[in-house]
Amino acid sequence: MSVSFPPGFLWGSATAAYQIEGAVREGGRTPSIWDTFSHTPGKTENGDTGDTATDHFHRRADDVRLMADLGLGAYRFSVSWPRVQPTGRGPAVQPGLDFYRGLVDDLLDHGIKPVLTLYHWDLPQELESAGGWPERETAHRFADYARIVADALGDRVDMWTTLNEPWCSAFLGYGSGVHAPGRTDPVAALRAAHHLNLAHGLAAQALRGTLPSHAQLSISLNPSVVRAGSQSPADLDAKRRIDALANRVFADPLLSGAYPQDLFADTAQLTDWSFVHGDDLAVIRHPLDSLGLNYYSPAVVSAATDSHPERSDGHGASEHSPWPGADSVSFHQPPGDRTEMGWSIDPTGLYDLLMHYTREAPGLPLMITENGAAYDDKPAADGSVHDPDRIRYLQGHLAAVHRAMDDGADVRGYFLWSLMDNFEWAYGYGKRFGAVYVDYETQTRTPKSSARWYAELARTGVLPDMPAS
Ligand code: IFM
Q: Does the beta carbon of 18 lie inside 6 Å of ligand 1?
């Protein structure tokens, strides 16, 4: 049986600046931590970098026309901090602002709602060289940058997101080191998590002080749907530890103005958390207009039975853990179908996530700001690209969203990750998440069958029961 989404439900797709823009040396842009990291031998698959990516910087107008052809109602993109404020300090550069103003105007001309994310992982390298997210100063720099972008685009963008997936910035960037800047210091990771929270709060204040009153503020988290391998006390404790580090370290200060006490206890050997100052928590708990949730796959954890816990947590291989204070937790991939990332496919995780935040944050609208799957898509002889597995993935997850809405979740929109194939961070260009296929030699864009399927859904709001194959 097909189901219908309510009128006004926002159907969009998402991208991020470093993953698509290229043009890394144009218009006064200076390197971000991802430029430095991807140019460091051994950090990305095949040494891939975002130097050219999908050349969106030069193909912006065509890409917006493509979105319009697909009938998208909204487009979630990120602003590259070093393109707008190259050193992370001082005045903005005009070409950077002009690029985003042009993008927003193109979107509005086509009736597509711009949804702007201020930070999707591309910290100006100069700020990292001065200490990066483990330092408090970076949070203040972020608030200044937020004010600059709000001044420039506040008259035409209504929906603002401060950070995308701060967990990845903190724990993959400073803990396991599989993301830029590639540091492997558990204390730095915890300090980064707090300063990202603070950056969110300070930026939210700056945005509220600059934007028109109807502007909507949000943050996009990637909470882990953590499941215990068994109901044994040890496995339940493993689940509690990961839940604290993956979820509550962000959600609790944002929603309740406090860090979880058990997190302090779990990490007491590492830090006394004295980097949390007087009124930080009041700043972080700034009222939001919606909460963005990114979901791909659940995590199954148990207590490790030996001194080398299995760590197939789906976040890349590193001898350093991204889980400070939880070194004795094993991660397992549940049996069943997986995507090309090796991530298990489980739409019930998305249902559980939506119901969890419906309970945790009553009255706060939810938005799925990322969901999607990588597959090994290849063009057929006639150039068309068929991706029935992705359609099945999307269909299953959207059915879960609908079920959660039936059960009371206030979900306002869904953003497919991603509009087009792009630079998948440390995995380089080998992993294709796009609804649109990109031939990286020619930069030709070809909508996959999932793009046509999604366009029909965006047009009608009707989710068919059986995916086309
Ligand atoms: O490509 C990323 C994106 O940048 C952040 N969320 C997860 C996606 C898939 O790994």
A: no
Contact 169 CB / ligand 1 (< 6 Å): no
Indicate the range of 283-292, 313-322, 434-443, 453-462 predicted with least confidence: 313-322
Indicate the residue type of 15. Answer: T
Q: Which residues touch 441 (CB under 8 Å, ≥6 apart)? A: none
Q: What is the atom index within ligand 1 of the atom nearest the CA of 341?
A: 10
Alpha helix positions (H), 233-346 = 233-243, 249-256, 261-266, 280-284
Q: Look up the pTM and report it.
A: 0.98
Q: How many CB atoms lie within 10 A of CB 280?
A: 21
Q: Residues 57-103: pLDDT tens digits?
A: 999 999 999 999 999 999 999 999 999 999 999 999 999 999 999 99
Assess if residue 304 is contained within a domain. Answer: no
Strands 3-4 and 462-463 turn out to be antiparallel
**How many structural domains does the chain have?**
1
232 within domain boundaries: no
Q: Residue 365 sits in which domain range?
A: 10-224+238-298+336-460
In this structure, which amino acid lies at residue 72?
Answer: L
- The minimum-distance atom of ligand 1 relative to the CA of 294 is 6
> Would 344 be classed as within a structural domain?
yes
pLDDT tens-digit series, residues 360-383: 999 999 999 999 999 999 999 999
Q: In ligand 1, which atom is closest to the CA atom of 121?
A: 4
Q: At what angle do helices 347-360 and 249-256 cross, to 10 degrees?
A: 30
For residue 375, report the distance from its CA to the centre of ligand 1, in Å.
Answer: 14
Q: Which of 21, 128, 135, 165 is catalytic?
A: 165
Q: Is the CB of 165 under 6 A from ligand 1?
A: yes
Question: Residue 319 falls within a domain, yes or no?
Answer: no
Give how far Cα 73 sits from Cα of 416, 444, 461, Å. Answer: 12, 23, 11
Does residue 165 carry a catalytic annotation? yes
Atom 4, ligand 1: residue with shortest CA distance: 16
Q: Which residues pair with 301 in a beta bridge?
A: 228, 331
Kindly report the CATH number assigned to the domain that includes residue 205: 3.20.20.80
Tell whether ligand 1 has an atom less than 6 A from the beta carbon of residue 424. yes
Q: Is the CB of 217 under 6 A from ligand 1?
A: no
